[in-house]
Write a structure and sequence with these properties.
It contains six helices and 29 strands. The protein is 11% helix and 37% strand.
């Protein structure tokens, strides 16, 4: 009799309607949940493969090498090789710097590593003391471009064997770099005294001419948006007694190139961030129309996307599609940001300080809310040699 009760019920699970399975998937808040869903049976796995579901929230890569899953707050420790001394997130992979002055692209989920070559003088500010000098890395089919911590100058190397690789350094210090429609874009800013003005210049480099046939020709870096202090929506002045920092991020969002400007209020002593008091998003318009009149234009919508910004890695993801929005997923017109404060040791700062200045900023209604996660699992893991950044998992 028990078999009669269990048999029909158990055999019906693989035959649930695909539309119902999609609704179940939209209510699974984490990557691990979606993986478990696929493992139930072949028909469920097939249902997932035939659907282009909206993406989930990324993981937060913590300072000690662990990863925090959002929004469930589960902590994952994916082992990196012991000879990795520094890592930079490139979104869905890690750029790893090794102690022997080599580097690689690393998949922390599988452990796979692919060697890359960058001049050791670029990778290290002090080779003897093993002090790294890489803050951000972007990779195309032909080049690897990196921003150094020391001087913030961008360096570009061809993706070729070490014996024939070509490297050169741009003279301008860069706040951020990004690849967009076949070009490398560099953002620079110049600060002027009271009344406070900020000149944000956008430069472009054609990667097709960046490194040609193993020659040492330095390509032209063209200024496509000249520095202007009168960007609509930018603050005109701030009290000279205020202590704050500004951070700038370039983000490719669909077919748009965006710049995010963040203003962080600092504590009077210790150079510790108190709160993010302003975030604004600008679009680079007129880049491709050939008019020569490209400019920054303030926007109040992300066109169905959410932005995730950090000095290491800034990405954009679509929030929803025709199947709907994932429960616990990213929110439309929101910018997710992390604490950019640098900790110099595992005891620098108090538990919870890392998430003191992390949050979600809605650019439409200008409201601020905490990151969607439980913090208890991270309190013992805030210390470490690296920076907080984002890591995006494979789409399931």
């Amino acid at each position: 009799m028990m078999a009669d009760l269990i048999g029909p019920s158990s055999s019906s699970w693989p035959h649930l309607l695909p539309e119902l399975l999609v609704q179940v998937l939209l209510r699974l808040p984490s990557h691990a949940d979606r993986v478990r869903f696929r493992a139930v049976c072949r028909s469920w796995r097939s249902a997932v493969q035939r659907r282009d579901l909206p993406p989930l929230l990324p993981w937060v890569a913590l300072r000690d090498g662990a990863f925090l899953s959002l929004p469930d707050g589960v902590l994952y420790r994916l082992p990196l090789p012991s000879h990795v001394s520094h890592r930079v997130s490139m979104g869905d992979t890690l750029f790893s710097v090794h102690r022997d002055a080599t580097c690689s692209l690393t998949n922390p989920l599988t452990g796979e590593m692919a060697s890359e070559h960058i001049d050791p003088d670029i990778l290290w500010s002090d080779m003897r003391m093993r002090t790294h000098n890489v803050r951000k890395v972007v990779v195309s089919d032909r080049v690897v471009a990196a921003i150094g911590i020391s001087g913030l100058k961008a360096s570009i190397c061809s993706r070729a064997p070490q014996t024939c690789s070509t490297c050169f350094q741009c003279e301008l210090p860069a706040d951020d770099i990004v690849l967009f429609q076949g070009k490398l874009y560099l953002l620079t800013s110049q600060h002027f005294p009271i009344p406070l003005q900020l000149h944000r210049k956008l430069h472009a480099m054609d990667l097709g001419q960046a490194i040609a046939n193993n020659t040492h020709h330095v390509p032209v870096l063209q200024c496509v948006i000249p520095g202007t202090a009168d960007i609509p929506g930018a603050p005109i002045n701030t009290s000279p007694t205020d202590l704050y920092k500004r951070h700038y991020y370039l983000v490719v969002s669909g077919d748009r190139l965006l710049m995010v400007e963040g203003e962080v209020e600092m504590e009077p002593f210790g150079n510790v961030p108190r709160r993010t008091r302003r975030l604004e998003v600008f679009e680079a318009t007129g880049l491709l129309d050939g008019s020569g009149h490209a400019r920054w234009r303030k926007v109040d919508t992300l066109m169905g996307h959410a932005l995730f910004i950090s000095l290491d890695c800034s990405w954009s993801i679509p929030v929803a599609n025709h199947y709907g929005r994932a429960v616990g997923g990213a929110r439309e017109d929101c910018v997710y940001f992390l604490n950019e404060h640098k900790l110099h040791s595992s005891t620098d700062g108090k538990p919870g300080d890392d998430f003191r200045n992390c949050g979600v900023y809605n650019i439409r209604d200008q409201t601020l809310s905490p990151l969607p996660t439980e913090l208890a699992s991270t309190l013992a893991s805030h210390g470490g040699p690296w920076s907080l950044t984002w890591f995006f998992l494979p789409h399931i």
